[in-house]
Amino acid sequence: MEELLEILGELHPDVDFENETQLVDDGILDSLDIVSLIGEIKRVFDVTVTAGDIIPDNFNTVQAMMALIERLEEEA
User: Hey, what CATH class is 2-75 in?
Assistant: First the structure.
């Protein structure tokens, strides 16, 4: 999770990602952030996020993002 938190911290250093629960719904992460995040997830975790995975529920919390990454790692 530390690697994901580092990626998110580079996008928005002023956000408490560990405690925020509505990153997409509250507009903290916008579409450009999600595109950047997906690229970094691919680079760091060596997984591919598909179009079907790009839903708010998968990006609203760090925990949801880690669950997505772990699922994609298992499927690889």
Answer: mainly alpha
